[in-house]
Design goal:
By secondary structure, the chain is mostly helical. The chain is 67% helix and 1% strand. It is built from 19 helices and two strands. Strands 1-2 form a two-stranded parallel ribbon. Helix 1 packs antiparallel against helix 17 and helix 3 packs across helix 9. The longest helix is centred in the middle third of the chain and has 25 residues. The protein is globular. It starts with 19 loop residues before the first helix and ends with a helix. The relative contact order is 0.17.
Length: 357
């Protein structure tokens, strides 16, 4: 199970063939994650502001985790791990989450649940429902989505508040469990929806479950999603309310992930998937093949450079340029890394240990 967002080995007609656009999609996902973390570290936007630049970076950054988790769901349903391997894999991801936290004390506490711990939890949970998806994946996905939206509408308090300190709290077992399941940065509820969406693509997609088929229901879904985004943006503008923001009061919020955000994120994930599967930008392939390594390692330079914005008095434009440059540098770095040290990656380590189990 190669991580690259799912930590799953991706097999098509043979055990060695890789699906190139899946690697490219993983590359997109991890680079967007790098971008959003760089932006959070150097904070180009000191306060909520309805600017085009803010929406571009926030919009793309907001799709990083949904695409990441969707690809995880896609991959885990294509794996054939034993229960023992799944337990080890889950523990490995939880360990990597702690490593990320330790190397990023300016962002997280030591035991803050995050996207890797979410994947660790899903590694144990999702495969148990594989038979449900094989028989009726669309029905399962629609039912679960309806249930989540119902809970969000009638009991929004279950996801906590937009207070960042509360979402990264890890000083007690109760806070860790709460943040892992409901109130953290990437809790099981409602982020399981994106993993289930990936499972649906894996079960129902064309080209050995790797492509999203552009059939009428998909076209209608994209159209409805785009209309929802445009409509909510228009209403927000007329009511003088922020349209999208990670934590502030807005129509679309990331922390917590509200219904409006989930709808917009599903639309964005489908559009990115369709674009990449048609274009197959191989320049992103190397980044995708070592996405776990990039995800864990990219936090280290950010920790050492976290005060550069203040030290060098970067402007909004300068901060944004640095964020983009820091993101893009991982593409040639990944290509060089894999060419020279293909076995010195977390993916290779995970694969080697798993084979011994």
């Amino acid at each position: 199970m190669q991580f690259s967002t799912s930590s799953q080995s991706v097999d098509t007609m043979t055990q060695t063939q890789r699906i190139q656009h899946i690697d490219s999609l993983r590359g997109v996902a991890v680079l967007l994650m790098v971008m959003v973390h760089a932006a959070a570290t150097w904070n180009p936007f000191h306060s909520p502001q309805p600017s085009v630049l803010a929406y571009i970076i926030s919009g793309l950054g907001g799709l990083a985790a949904p695409l990441f988790v969707t690809l995880f769901g896609w991959g885990i349903f294509r794996s054939n791990l034993t229960w023992r391997q799944r337990v080890f894999h889950s523990l490995f991801l939880f360990t990597m989450q702690i490593l990320v936290n330790v190397t990023s004390p300016h962002l997280f506490e030591t035991f803050t649940p995050g996207v890797l711990s979410l994947m660790g939890l899903l590694t144990l949970i999702l495969p148990s429902f594989k038979s449900q998806f094989t028989a009726r994946s669309i029905t399962t996905f629609v039912s679960l989505t309806t249930f989540v939206f119902f809970i969000q509408f009638f009991n929004p308090e279950i996801q906590g508040t937009g207070n960042w300190t509360e979402r990264i709290e890890g000083n007690s077992l109760s806070s860790v469990v709460s943040n892992l399941l409901f109130t953290g940065t990437y809790p099981l509820f409602p982020w399981i929806l994106f993993a289930v969406f990936g499972a649906v693509i894996s079960m129902r997609g064309s080209n050995y479950g790797a492509n999203i088929s552009l059939i009428q229901p998909i076209k209608y879904s994209i159209a409805c999603g785009l209309l929802f985004c445009l409509g909510s943006f228009y209403v927000s503008s007329r009511m003088d309310v922020l349209w999208a923001h990670p934590t502030s009061a807005a129509t679309l919020t990331f922390f917590p992930a509200n219904t409006a955000f989930i709808i917009a994120a599903f639309t964005g994930v489908v559009l990115i998937w369709l674009f990449v599967q048609s274009m197959v930008p191989l320049i992103l392939k190397s980044s995708g093949q070592m996405s776990l390594t990039i995800y864990v390692v990219h936090f280290i330079p950010l920790t050492f450079m976290r005060d550069f914005e203040v030290t060098y008095q970067w402007s909004l434009t300068a901060s944004s340029i640095v964020v983009v440059c820091y993101t893009l540098i991982w593409m040639p770095l990944a290509a060089t890394w894999l060419k020279r040290y293909p076995k010195v990656t977390l993916e290779a380590l995970l694969k080697g240990i798993r084979k011994s189990l």
